[in-house]
Design a protein that fits this description.
alpha/beta; Rossmann fold; 5-stranded parallel β-sheet; glycosyltransferase
Length: 511
């Protein structure tokens, strides 16, 4: 009986052993299948980790040189800043990292700050640029847009395209801007091409890929007037572009070759790359960052609180003196005058607001000990040559007008004298040149003429409101002020009355 029980137990154990072996075999077969066919699913479900896999290269990426992380240059390497490439796999790369545990993911909307996603795969970082597009339309002087991501600029068009995923149907913004800082001036902007900045999921394929920031602006408007060349374009361009230390591409609409040539030295100092003609180009240029418009503050001014790196007008004039290789950084003290005479530059306008007694003015100044230079730059003038003339002077004087813009070439502590024509133009004179001059580190003197010194007495009777109430004209449109007091008035300076102003300029040098 005992032997039978023993045999029964042995039989049961043998069956259980075979059952266990069968179960183990099934488990091993299942695990082998999972490991071979779906390793990510096994890791995620079994251990709670997430993997980050590279997005496979698209056919376009391989053809355009992204294979193995390299860029190809179809242009034969002529420009190290440009490489032929397509950015069409960006959306796929973004999708591949959504929801990853160790990524800082933010919904990509039009108002977000651009940020980098960092994932780790085998100790290697994979980065994807968050998209951002925003336009500031609140500034009273300029509308400016900043775009990050996949931005495409088709040449010979009026569009700047901000690429978004085809799945994003909620944020298809569009902005229309004039990339010239005279917002609200309809007369000026009538000549400026309006550009459309819009989000889209469909755009022409990139033919040229750039690795630097693009700045898009117009050189139309009031260009050709020296004051507006600086106030509207060169100062704002300095504020916008200087921070990039030359690694920036200028994309110019309303292209004017003569203007580009005139300020070639300034443009070459701000950008290492040839200026691109937006209107005359046939390529589709692709950038990772684009700024449409220029940062402009007050008239002929820089607000350090709003400027990148806290730039000031002193920084700008130092940049200009360096660009034109000007020798004098500052006016020397009185001891320097023992070996030479103080040098006075008279900006002599040829048409309106001209001096009618320039000979008397020169004779009086020379009698005070000045060496006098009489000159005025015009559109065709050699900027570099005239800049050297201005920089050699200690004092510069002239009637309110664009010619006074040459003060940007003066050395620090030089004196600028602005003669204000009749007509209540003191506020305008201070705004255009007075405040900027002081912000440039110059000594500023302002001299308003009397009725007797104005040629308006030859056009109007003395009891006319031009003389009795000139400020009444300022309630009208500016063109009324301009036509009345600026276009038809010349100045016969009272040299005896003005002598004290030139003495004050000499005292500035002594101090």
């Amino acid at each position: 009986m005992g032997s039978k029980l023993k045999l029964a137990r042995n039989g049961n154990q043998s069956r259980r052993l075979r059952l266990v072996m069968l179960l183990v075999g099934c488990f091993l077969v299942t695990m082998t299948y999972l490991v071979a066919s779906k390793p990510q699913g096994l890791v995620r479900s079994s251990f709670g980790f997430r993997t980050s896999m590279r997005t496979p290269l698209s056919g376009d990426d391989v053809l355009n040189g992204y294979e193995n992380g390299r860029h190809s240059t179809a242009s034969g390497g002529k420009d190290p800043q440009i490489s032929q490439a397509s950015a069409e796999s960006n959306d796929e790369k973004e999708k591949s990292i959504q929801g990853e545990k160790n990524a800082s993911v933010v919904d990509s909307t039009s108002q977000e700050v651009a940020r980098t996603h960092e994932l780790t795969e085998g100790g290697e970082q994979i980065q994807t640029l968050e998209r951002k597009s925003s336009c500031d339309l609140s500034d009273e002087r300029v509308d400016i847009c900043e775009l990050y991501g996949d931005i495409r600029i088709p040449g010979n068009s009026s569009s700047v395209l901000f690429m978004e995923s085809s799945n994003n149907t909620e944020h298809k913004e569009a902005w229309r801007v004039h990339p010239y800082p005279r917002k609200g001036d309809e007369t000026c902007l009538r000549e400026v091409r309006e550009l459309t900045i819009r989000a889209t999921s469909e755009a022409p394929r990139c033919t040229v890929h750039h690795n630097v920031t693009a700045i898009v602006f117009s050189v139309s408007g009031y260009t050709g007037n020296l004051f507006h060349d600086f106030s509207d374009l060169l100062v704002p361009l300095f504020v916008t572009a200087r921070q990039f230390d030359g690694e920036v591409q200028f994309v110019v609409t309303d292209f004017r070759r003569w203007w580009i040539n005139k300020y070639r030295l300034v443009l070459q100092r701000l950008s290492k790359y040839p200026v691109m003609d937006f209107d005359g180009d046939e390529e589709v240029h692709c950038f990772k960052q684009v700024i449409v418009g220029l940062r402009a503050h007050q008239e002929f001014q820089i607000d350090p609180a709003r400027a990148p790196n806290g730039y000031t007008l002193i920084d700008f004039t130092r940049f200009i003196r360096s660009t034109y290789s000007l020798q004098r950084e500052t006016v020397n003290n009185i001891e320097d005058l023992a070996a030479r005479k103080p040098r006075l530059l008279i900006i002599a306008r040829k048409r309106t607001r001209a001096f009618t007694n320039i000979g008397e003015i020169v004779a009086m100044a020379e009698g005070l000990g000045y060496e006098v230079v009489v000159d005025e730059a015009n559109v065709s003038s050699d900027m570099a040559q005239f800049a050297r003339t201005v920089n050699s002077c200690d004092v510069m004087m002239g009637v309110h007008g664009a010619g006074l813009t040459n003060l940007v070439f003066l050395p620090l502590n030089a004196t600028i004298i602005q003669i204000v024509p009749w007509g209540g133009l003191e506020w305008m004179s201070m705004l255009d040149f007075g405040y900027p001059a002081m912000a440039m580190g110059l000594k500023y003197l302002q001299h308003s003429i009397t009725i007797e010194e104005s040629t308006l007495t030859e056009q109007y009777p003395r009891d006319h409101r031009v003389f009795t109430d000139p400020m009444s004209f300022h309630g009208s449109e500016f063109k009324v002020v301009r036509s009345t007091f600026m276009k038809t008035q010349n100045v016969k300076l009272d040299v005896n009355r003005f002598k004290g102003v030139l003495w004050a300029a000499l005292e500035n040098m002594i101090q």
